[in-house]
Specification:
The chain is an alpha+beta fold. Helix content is 22%, strand content 38%. The termini are close together.
Length: 76
């Protein structure tokens, strides 16, 4: 899902979205963004919540953002 700033839908004319991926990394779940890993935990739901918080912070400053969760068959 692509989100834009509050009150506006994201369009094709906006900036590229910031993408926060939930991935398995070194035996735990982590948020990967631009090649860097953060918010590591064994609890996948906790990491999803962290990524959502990061994405919402980006949206508040006017950047579209996506959270992608690694599934058993890829991303969903």
């Amino acid at each position: 899902m692509l989100l834009g700033p509050p009150g506006r839908a994201a369009t094709e004319h906006t900036m590229s979205p910031l993408i926060f991926r939930i991935v398995e990394h070194d035996g735990a779940w982590s948020v990967e963004h631009e090649g860097r890993y953060s918010n590591r935990s064994r609890d996948k739901a906790e990491v999803i919540a962290s990524a959502t918080k990061l994405a919402r912070a980006a949206i508040v400053i006017g950047r579209p953002a996506q959270v992608r969760v690694e599934g058993e068959a890829g991303y969903f």
